[in-house]
Amino acid sequence: SSNSISMLPSEPKIFHGRESELSDILHLFNTGIPRIAILGAGGMGKTSLARAVLHQPDITARYVQNRFFVACNSATTKLELVNLIGGHLGLKPAQNLTQAVLQYFSNNPPSLLILDELETLWEPASSRASIEELLSLLTGVEDLALMITMRGADKPAKVLWTRPFLQVLQPLDQEAARHTFVDIADSGHSLEEVDQILSLADNVPHAISLLAHLADTEGCSNVLFRWDKEKTSVISEGFDKRLNLNMSISLSLSSPRIQSIPHSQELLSLLAMLPDGLADVDLIQSELPLENILKCKTALESTSLAYSDEHKRLKVLMPIREYLQQYKPPGDHLIRSLLKYFQDMLKFHVEYHGTQLGSSTITQVKSNLTNIHNVLQWGLKQNHPVLSNSIYCVCYFSQFSELNMQVQTSLMGQIQDLLPQLNDHHLKSYFLIESIRLWQYYPISDPEALASQVVELFKDFDDPDLKCRFYLSMSGYYHNIKNDLVGAVSMCKRLISLAIQTGNTRRYSHGLSKLAWINIQLGTYSEAQMDACKSQKLSRVSGDLYGEADAVHIQALCWKELGHYKQSLSLSIRAQSLLNLCGMAGGDTNCGIMST
């Protein structure tokens, strides 16, 4: 073996956060002759982990001079790989060294063979079968320990991999990520800025290393400023994928497994603008124009370009997301489909909120909050083809946020400047009514002028339910903002009258509850209780659990003011249980009940 080209790579000097995986691998060595696959996304530290194993004292003592580390990225066929291994073993060159390699390992003391970056050979369908056959032959050698590193989450077939399988490598935990950064860039940096940089890297070791080296020379503040302008390009200079993040990501995207399923890259580009990821139910119900969407998901997971988090939502790591948004943004047709999905979901919630039917959408919407914001931000542009849909969706989103989370979306404030270009009077009315309702969140100079606009717009279409919403919003404005109880009562009576005329039981109950709240402020508790009792009955008829809870809450408050605390407590508990039934225990009504 004096002609051997084998030279072992050095032990990694900076190595944090992989102690558990290292321990698991060493345990497998202690239980026999292992066959181990180290899997994970590009830049996750697979090679570093293999190098760390290579230099562990127990491994060095056991295999002495029989440790071989073969980088596979220069080979393109099985024969080239076999000859490369043969070169590391010191074998004489030949056309096919397969048998000579097997004989070498069989006739020599126990050996450890590490095949690094094997995906370059295993990925192409044309060479996969022959590579798997070679691995099968190698693992047939009794005293040969085999370890491979590969991008992705799939292990090659035809090998009895040692159990328990090593888990696919994940990003580092925060402490390990900080240690890695400090080892490279020293400790004189603001912890807040360091954590911001780590969030950009999503704690992926390779990205941390590149950003830390840059911070060491330029400082954290400048790195953050440059990232804001240049994104992943800031750490993508040169032609070595170890030093170029974009090249590393591009290599993963060129995987034959991705290329063989064309729509998988389109799905990946869409996921890049969705920080919350997508659940299977979202992938299916959104009806994205992508064939075999679950097959696309499998391809992304198998190459580790995407992963499923603990809630089984398909996500993409930050560095890959930034790269895709800059170089491979999703097609408008995909975002448009997702907008329709979110709009339908939010509209359904608005129409059925407070019922058991509407409760089914709450968790689904909450799991997509940032996704919805990003998709709406995309559509809120002048002359955008889906501007009208986006504005409706923002209004629905606003109502959802207030009802379920006691917060408001900042998107409402972006719409006012877009209204002049809209000819849809129904949409304008809908938005203006929502603006009046939200006056306390987004103060407007003259709400009554907006109300006059709405009245004029109503002349062009007939929507009794929207008129009921208008009267309810105006009643709230007079009651809560102007403290004009006469005006508030007048609007309530208009609402109730219209609701009775049109048979709108739900709006009728809303009007009665609003009237009851006004009577509480007036101190006329008996009238408030009568209105609330009637509202409760109407809500029960329409299946409006939220409306019923509000009415019961009013009654509880009246009993409290009258000094009947036992009745008040009993009704408060009832109101709380109704909110729980409809899944809306996180909004204003719940807080009011808790304080009663």
TrEMBL record:
This is P-loop containing nucleoside triphosphate hydrolase protein. It comes from Mycena albidolilacea. Pfam families: nSTAND1 (PF20703). InterPro entries: nSTAND1, P-loop_NTPase, TPR-like_helical_dom_sf. Residues 11-214 form the Novel STAND NTPase domain. Keywords: Hydrolase. Gene3D superfamilies: P-loop containing nucleotide triphosphate hydrolases, Tetratricopeptide repeat domain. The keyword Hydrolase applies. GO terms for molecular function: hydrolase activity.
